[in-house]
Design brief:
By secondary structure, the chain is α/β, with parallel strands linked by helices. Helix content is 45%, strand content 24%. The radius of gyration is 22 Å and the shape is elongated.
């Protein structure tokens, strides 16, 4: 058997790509890259900036990977899935990529007619992803916890307050990631903001600054950007507890670090998933998945306050705060 990673195999693949002259090899055969791009459409909510720019960057990544322009439809909240379905049938679209909540609404309605996948969604209940894959904007716990250990090697425990209706799937991944990094994940459930506030007050009062860190997930129930965030960042600073977040905006306000989407790379990844669905409409398992196409942001003022290696933290980050 040939080792897929061997030079001879890599050479063979390169020669194959050259011989195909821009063909895309799929499970069901080969089609040209142009045919692949014509068979894929993207639907996304018709929103203003900065959301429009985000969707544009993702679509550009999709088109770059597919080597051709895709049909992209900006839809309003009043858009009727039946009319969009008719438009896609006229275009002979085989795979639909839904972006954001608006795109997810259309994709869910058309999942019985087309192969669909969804990306660029902030928070999703697992029941919403039973029929197709949903790639959220929640950073992969494995990436977050690996970065925590790099910035704070002495960390041993990570505290997390979450709503199980939204993030039970994320906590399952986080437990595995924590074990891989030699960390203990202390995840506590909260069904409302009041319950979350009580848990934050308790854990911040008992946390060990030398060993403990607090993770703020993308969870509208447990991470309110006003009351909860203000409390956690204030008490975290006063007690020198490392607070990191799945929200980029929290780093500017004082969280130690976050991961955020690399939009063009996310588009390329969605295109790869679409190619798999073109080859086999059942190639991808339904369910919720985290964001793996990420960039990093760090607050060096917070890093210095915590006694961490500021130069190392800054060198490994794409965005640095304070930036003025």
């Amino acid at each position: 058997m040939i080792d897929p990673g061997s030079p001879s195999e890599a050479t063979r693949r390169a020669l194959l790509r050259q011989a195909l002259g821009g063909m895309v090899v799929l499970a069901g055969g080969s089609v040209s890259a142009a045919d692949a791009s014509r068979a894929v459409a993207v639907v996304y909510p018709d929103l203003g900036e900065p959301f429009k720019q985000i969707f544009t960057a993702i679509i550009e990544g999709i088109e770059e990977k597919l080597r051709g322009q895709v049909a992209s439809l900006a839809v309003s909240n009043a858009a009727r899935p039946a009319e969009i379905a008719e438009d896609l049938r006229r275009r002979d679209v085989k795979v639909l990529i839904g972006l954001g909540r608006g795109g997810m609404r259309i994709a869910a309605a058309l999942a019985g007619e087309l192969a669909v996948l969804v990306g660029c969604v902030v928070s999703v209940q697992e029941t919403e992803a039973r029929a197709f894959p949903v790639y959220t904007l929640a950073p992969d716990p494995a990436l977050l916890l690996a970065r925590l250990k790099r910035l704070m090697p002495a960390a041993r425990r990570v505290h997390l307050v979450y709503d199980p209706r939204l993030n039970a799937w994320l906590v399952r991944l986080a437990r595995e990631a924590a074990r891989a990094e030699g960390l203990e994940l202390l995840a506590q459930e909260a069904g409302d903001q009041a319950g979350a506030l009580r848990l934050y007050a308790q854990l911040l009062g008992s946390a060990d600054p030398t060993r403990d860190a607090l993770w703020l997930p993308q969870d509208p129930t447990t991470v309110d950007d006003n009351v909860v965030l203000s409390l956690v960042l204030r008490e975290g600073w006063n007690r020198s507890i490392a607070v990191f977040s799945s929200h980029l905006a929290h780093v500017k306000r004082g969280a130690l670090f976050s991961l955020y989407p690399d939009n063009a790379e996310l588009g390329r990844s969605l295109a790869m998933s679409a190619l798999r669905l073109l080859g086999n409409p059942r190639a991808l398992a339904a369910g919720v998945a985290p964001l793996r196409d990420t960039r990093g942001a760090v607050n060096i003022r917070t890093a210095a306050h915590l006694g961490l290696d500021v130069a190392a933290a800054q060198a490994g980050s794409d965005l640095v705060y304070p930036n003025g």
